[in-house]
Specification:
By secondary structure, this protein is of the alpha/beta class. Helix content is about 45%, strand content about 15%. The radius of gyration is 18 Å and the shape is globular.
Length: about 300
Amino acid sequence: MSGWSAENIPDQGGRVAVVTGANSGIGYATARELARRGARVLLACRSEARGVQARDRMAGEVPGADVEFTRLDLGDLASVREFAATYPGDRLDLLVNNAGVMALPYGTTADGFETQFGTNHLGHFALTGLLLPTLLATPGARVVTVSSPMHALANIDIGDLNSERRYRRWVAYARSKTANLLFVHELSRRLAAHGSDVIAAAAHPGYAATNLQAAGPKMAGRRAAERFMGIGNRFFAQSADAGALPTLYAATAPDVLPDSFTGPSLGGWRGAPAPSWRAPWTRDDRVSQRLWTASEELTGVMYGALKV
């Protein structure tokens, strides 16, 4: 894994990938490099204007790239269901659950869930479940879910998943990222129990310069915080291209293990991909099963093929 870069990505010819939030940042870099190696890539983005712009930009950067925009709003389960129902083709080699929001003012999704938990976890839980039959039918398929080192700030509160009793933006973000890792843990356990060769793994970009950091302060009108985030991105963060490497490693490297967590090698913040530390609670079987059951109930998406 030492020194691994985008040049090490194996040939992706004949493979089909879906990357959520692919219009900018980590998602864009991930989708572009998969397309550069020959994959057919669906850019699953909420904004049609930004998604189409990203598709056109990518086609210019990678001549001959097979990329397509498809609208997907992870904060609206109706949109998630429509995306899955209209998914083209009968194979899906790679699902990259990348899109997310961070430290936003309190709000709710179209379905009434707290925005960060609803978008970062429940939207991707529903999307993966709805695409599961296609993933299971594709030999060697993978599901890569992007978490964050910030998950270490908080375990989930199974009795208050939507932060209805008290909302603290960073705690809510950390809980949503813990939920991502618990999802990967439980999905890996269920896939193994059913003898599937689908690999579920997690990754994180460390500290990478994207639009994610400034979105929350901008929405809240906190200009000083927005400027502070901009300074951090400019002087301390690694590039979005570098931040995408752990995701690309988890998505394509031959030695990736189920329920692994890949991040930057230097303190988990920057550098080449390496195994990343994760909080012990993200491998708690009891909690992961309770979150799974709650997620099925909240979304109405049942993983019947992986029932235990």
